[in-house]
Structure formats: C-alpha cells, structure tokens
Amino acid sequence: MSKISDFIGVSARKNVEEAIAKAHAHESFHALLSLTETRALERADAVDRGEITGSLAGVPFIAKDNFLTLGGTTTAASKILENFEAPLQATAIEKLEAEGAICIGKANLDAFAHGGSTENSAFGPTKNAVDQERVAGGSSGGSAVVVALGIVPFALGTDTGGSIRQPASFNGVVGMKPTYGTVSRYGVVAMASSTDTIGVLASNTDDAALVMGVMSGKDTKDMTTLPDFFTPTILEGKKKIGLIKEAMTDDVDPEVRRVTNEYIEKLRSAGHEVEEVSLSLLKYALAIYYIVVPAEISSNLGRYDGIRYGRRADASRLSELYGSSRDEGFMTENKRRIMIGSYVLSSGFFDAYYLQAQKVRTLLINEFNELFQSFDVLVAPVAPTPAFKLGENTNDPIKMYLADVMTVPASLAGLPAISVPAGKNEQGLPIGVQLIGKRRDDALLLALAKTIEENA
C-alpha cells in the first residue's frame, strides 16, 4: 500500500500515469467502473507547471461512483444512471481538488450503496484484495480495494450503516466514518439522509486525518454540515475505553474475537484502561436501521422516474413509463428497500413501525451518551466475520443484513467511528477493530488508532 507522502514532491504526471497503469494491471479485481484519464492528466500537468498547488498537489485518488465528478460518468453502479454525466462536482471533491489532489477514476459499489458486499453492482462484483474468491465488502468495496492494492494512497467512500468500515476491515485498510455532518453531502447521490456520511479509506491513520482535515467544514449547500471542528491532534494522556460486551458473544467468529482481544491488550499495554461495558440496545439497532433507512431510501429514490433523472424505458403511457424505467433501472436490492420503506411509511403502518423505530433510536442515542459520561472511546469488532465468499449470502438478504450488526449503532447515533487493521485469521484474511467516539471526537479516534498503529 502507498502513502500520501510517497507522492508529494514528485512529478504529478508521473504519479497519475503510474496510478492509471496500476489500475489497468489490477482490472481482474473489478474495483473500478471508470477512469478519468484525460482530465486527470490535464490537472497533473497544471500541477507540474505550478498552476495548482496545495497540501495534496499531485496526489492521485479515487472516488466512489456515487460522488458527482467531472470528466466522466457518475453511475452509482446502477443501470438507471449508466450514462449520467454530472454537471457539477461534489463539495468533497472540490475541496480536495482545491488542495491539488487529482481524481483518476470512480470505484465500484453496491448500486445506490444498497448492500454490504459490492455484489449488488449493476456492473458486476468487486473482488477482495487478499482473496479474489471473497467479497470486497460494501458498499464502498471498490474504494477499499484500490487502496489495499496500492493503486492510490486514499479513496473516498460513503458510510450509511458501515459502508466504509466493513470493507476497510475486509481488505486491511483504515476506514474513517466521521461525525454526522462533518463533511458536506452536497453532490453525493443520497441513500439515507439522516445517516449518510462522507469519509475516507487510506493505508494509515495520518493520511486519513489529512484528507478528513481537507474535506471537513460548513457548506452552505448542505444545511446539515457542522462548523469546521476537525483538527488532527496528538493523543494526550491515557484513555478509558469500553469494550462492548454484546459485540463479543459466541455469535461472533472466534477469530474475530481473538483479534479484537489482541487489540485490547495492545491498548492496555499502551497504558489505557479497558473495561467491559453493556450497550443493551445493540440487539435492536439492526431492526431500527432496516426500518428507518429503507423509509429514507424510498423517498430519495422517488426522483428516478425516467423523466427527471436516469434511464427512460420505451412506453406508450405515463404510468407504464414510470414503472418500466424503475423496473429496468433498479437492482433487486434497490427494489426490496423501496418496498420496505414504502410499507413502513404507509398510513396504516407509520405509527407501528417507523415512529416506534425512531423512538428506540433516541433510546440508543441516550444509551451511548450515558456510556460516554464514563468512557472516552468504545471498542468493538467491525463485522461478525472476515470477508465471506462471493455468492455465499446473495440469496439470503437477512444474513447479508446481519453483517452490519456491529456498525449500524454508531451510524444511527451520528457518532464518529473508525475501522483499523488489527490482524488476520488463520487463512490470512484481514480483520479490523472498530473504535467509536463521542460526537466531534473524530481526531481523538485517529490519534488513538495511530499510537497502536505505530507500535504494531
């Protein structure tokens, strides 16, 4: 894997050409949907001429293909947006480009970010960076794989319920999901507006912190953004850390528990105090998530009707146009979530499902707040298992959803969380550990993870 520092002070054109060559060399992983070679090389030449400067001048990166970018298509890995060329760029892309970074292409994902394996892409699955017979994780699977393969030093992803952290764990890279509102969502295809966050996948915590520092801050185009609070920091003093016991049950793979316990011992060896804590509502988090999030998805996908956005089917009547365009353009998982969301928002079931889920979500947030009165950071596995085999769970959506059980609580509460490489199982598959912090403690998580990373 490469680091940002490897690209600083080197010819930008050389950086971009080498990254593009690596992308072509690793095509069998299907981590990329497109390359924006022409625009990337033009920007590289401008950097070399001194016309573009900044802290990331000449550093190539890749964006998940739900970020609007210039120089190519933005498909969200769906047929309905297969030929869509964005008229503008996402705020996160604009901020990175203002610092001289160069987007060289778009990474594969589950269509509209609906999934946890990148098998729901309309253009085929991405393969794990370590074992091509296994999934990359999702929905930011392509972004994790391009970093793990060393194509670029960092890639952008989105995390709605674990879509950065889980693929980061499966591929052995750092994956940072910030506090909700840290980075603008403007120009990113919406999934669930109350939990969507913009984050980064990188080979190390320093690079993740640098990129987060560039992207964070208030954006007048996204009213949910927070004033810029993110400043990379150095860890000071010893921290009190809580290990979530409900995340370490016999339902979790023994190798995942072993690696997590080994990471706990590293924290203790560094002088931190680690105690077991209870997050009793963890068992309800997945049920909350798969009521609230599909409800928001059904609303956000309403605009894709074959008229305002996306692919238009041949039809003789308006109702047929709507139905056929959506039927042809959406994947099975997209349709499943639209149907669930429409059901829980319907007049007969809104109070019984959606309203109750939001009430329990508030209870979960309160439980997190109580724990953070006594603890600085919480720790848990990222996923119950290492990367599973391609096709293993595709016919069982419930089993697929259970892969999110560890990551959705922090998303529902809007908390920052980071997946850090912690070890491997007996087959050599990467396993990550998740650190969760209080709102706006993003820099603390990165600083804590860095101290363990440096001593590894």
Topology:
Blueprint lengths: L11 H14 L6 E4 L1 H12 L11 E5 L26 H8 L3 E6 L33 H8 L5 E6 L5 H7 L2 E4 L19 E6 L2 H11 L24 E5 L9 H16 L3 E5 L4 H19 L17 H12 L2 H14 L4 H22 L5 E5 L15 H6 L5 H6 L3 E8 L5 E8 L4 H14 L1
Parallel strand pairs: 2-3, 2-4, 7-8, 7-9
Antiparallel strand pairs: 1-3, 4-6, 5-6, 5-10, 9-11, 10-11
Helix pairs in contact: 1-2, 4-5, 6-14, 8-10, 8-11
Description:
This protein has 456 residues and is an alpha/beta fold. It has 14 helices and 11 strands. The protein has one domain (1-274, 379-456): Amidase signature (AS) enzymes, CATH 3.90.1300. 37% of the residues lie in helices and 14% in strands. Strands 1-3-2-4-6-5-10-11-9-7-8 form an 11-stranded mixed sheet, sandwiched between helices. α8 crosses α11.
Supply the key terms.
single chain; 456 residues; alpha/beta; Amidase signature (AS) enzymes; eleven-stranded mixed β-sheet; 14 helices
- Oligomerization status of the protein chains: single chain
Gyration radius, to the nearest Å? 21 Å
Q: Which structural class should the secondary elements be placed in?
A: alpha/beta
CATH fold title: Amidase signature (AS) enzymes
Total domains, how many? 1
Q: Mind describing the biggest β-sheet?
A: 11 strands, mixed
Unreliable sequence segments:
none
Question: Architecture in CATH?
Answer: Alpha-Beta Complex
Proportion of residues in helical segments: 25-40%
What is the CATH H-level superfamily?
Amidase signature (AS) domain
Strand tally, please? 11
**Overall 3D form:** globular
Number of helices: 14
Mean pLDDT: 96
CATH level 1 class label? Alpha Beta
What's the order of the H and E elements? Answer: HEHEHEHEHEEHEHEHHHHEHHEEH
In spatial order, strands of the major sheet run 1-3-2-4-6-5-10-11-9-7-8
CA distance, first residue to last residue: 16 Å
Which percent band covers the strand fraction? 5-15%
